[in-house]
Amino acid sequence: MVQCPMSFKEFSLVLFKLRPAVVTGRDGDKYEITLADDKKKVRDKDIVLLHEGPVKNLSSALTARLPDADMGEAAEFFSAESPLFAELTELLWGAIAPESAWAAWQAICASPLFEATAPDAPIRVRTAEEAEAIIRKAEAKESEAAEREAFAGRIRATLAGKGGIELPGDAKFLQDAEALALGNTDKSRALRDAGLAETAEMAHKLLLLCGYWPLERNPWPSRRNHSLASSTVEVPRPADEADAVDLTHLESFAIDNAWSTDPDDAVCVEGNALWVHIADPAATVTPDSPADLDARGRGATLYVPEGAARMLDDRALEWYALGLTPVSRALSFRLTFTETGAVDTVEVKKTRIRVTRLTYAEATARQEESGLAPLFAIARRNIARREAAGAVSIELPEVHLSVTKGADGTAEVIIEPVKDEIAADMVREMMLLAGEAAARFAFKNAIPFQYVSQEKPDIPKDLPEGLAGEYRKRRAMKSRKVGTIPSDHAGLGIGMYSQVTSPLRRYGDLIAHQQLRAFIEGRKPMDDDELLLKVAAADGAARECTLAERSSNLHWVLVFLSRNPQWRGKAVVVEKNGPMSTLLVPELGQESKIALKDDLPLNAEITVRAGNIDIPTQRLAFIPEGE
To answer: What is the pLDDT of residue 417?
Structure first.
């Protein structure tokens, strides 16, 4: 081994990136050094001399201790100077052993009286004011550390059911846990300090146990990057369009659920033609405008039991929802049919219409009236046509959840069964016809367009009856696909299909309207590549919206069951898989897997109660009565 030059003798104690090391030799133009946990070869510019040594064992330097020294006296002595490390060390401790140089350097660097950057650089003596500020900061940090340590203990006590967290005093320490529970971060110092898993579920549990969050706090939209507030990006007010067709002489019907507040479709018959009128926000929500970009990020309007977080600003309802004003604007599809009921001709027009709003129940009661009877007839014919083409109809019970403020100010959960109405089936057929017509119109005119397709489901021939059969059909369905090339939608029994009937609520529908409007106005629509990018982005956001809605619905069901421990309801066996059975609880719109003691047949009914309710993890079990 070649001897080191005088600048760095063998067994010198040096600093490498502020870490102590011992020089053990030289290899070419590099020095060999030994650190506490590694060996390296470095250039001379990478190390700084602490002591010439010899220090043959680094561990002796790491464990060396020096007596306390009067830093204040040394600071006063050098108040008008900038001493070197060796000079300051000599004054503080006199001659020190080579192994103690690292301890000396640490002590000087830790002192608020000195600013030391490197052993070979002058050390600045801080003013009294600077030193005092550093001391106060260190004391505050030490105090906060003690506070946090005590708070971590209170967290553990809270989770053990022994009280602990004190509000509002501890609220400042819970903010990062709340951010984690809302999905705004993936870390929480509060949970980490308490030795807990940094998960949204654990944060949610803690916030509930300590009373920082009420039981009803719903974090799921936030976790799916959706706001519970509607868009506030302004939608420009539309101007009257001279080329809009005046259809106010026809009575058009907007038919929806009783709780609907954003009517965006209406229908009527004129002679042998069907008119399907759709709200027309694309008149002013143009591609890449501020409102369009915000709607694309949301993907769809979020419907949760608390209410609707709209994709477009609430003013868009005033401008575009159908039937909220005496005359409504619409983008309308005029369809005629062949003798077999297939779509024959399609026209797309900007229109002015007069709309009567009805609930499904009201429309069902009036189905024989002259204005409504032809619509029901067209719907029946279309159902038969689709079924002949292999359409799959699934009839499973649905519920509608809503949340209102109770007399005591707490959230009251209302769960209502959705009643089957013939009018709902009729409106569904009108919307499917509009989607089919729009797809055919776009394909015929070579308009880049979004098409929705679905592969043929694998439905078994020995399909059970009742709810078990309906459940099996749903399990057999394939995922839908969205793209710019048309393909069969086997589930609907339609050869070419698009969604165009909800541009106030679904961004994909809004894109379709933008494309159709561009075409009928003689402008160039978006090309396939641009359209596909926007459709993909919106479809991803819409999927997150759907997941947020599902989780939110389950959240409120769990809140309802937590507050009603006496609840009992009917459950139906809809699937059996070995010892496990799947139960459907129609009253709640929920399903659960369970190991039943008795070997019950499909469609058997049993009475169940809710158990093992855990709101943070959304766990729920249905337990047969008597078990």
So the answer is: 94
Instruction: Judge whether 34 and 24 are in contact, CB under 8 Å.
Output: yes
DSSP string, 340-368: TS-EEEEEEEEEEEEEEEEEHHHHHHTTT
Structure tokens, 367: 């189905």
Amino acid type, 600: L
- pLDDT tens digits along 346-383: 999 999 999 999 999 999 999 999 999 999 999 999 99
Give me the CATH code for the 129-213 domain, please.
Answer: 1.10.10.10
Q: According to the 3-state scheme, what is the secondary structure of 532-554? A: HHHHHHHHHHHHHHHHHHHHHHH
Beta strand 605-614 pairing with 302-304: unpaired
Q: Residue 75's Cα: distance from chain center in Å?
A: 57
- Per-residue pLDDT of 218-243, as tens digits, reads 999 999 999 999 999 999 999 999 99
pTM for the model: 0.82
Contact 58, 34 (CB under 8 A): yes
Return the DSSP state at 178. H
Every domain of the chain and the residues it spans: 6-128, 129-213, 245-553, 564-624
Supply the pLDDT for residue 80: 85
What is the pLDDT, as a whole number, of residue 2?
39
Residues 381, 341: Cα–Cα separation, whole Å: 6
Give the containing element (helix H, strand E) for 436. Answer: helix 422-444
CATH 2.170.270.10 fits 564-624, yes or no: no
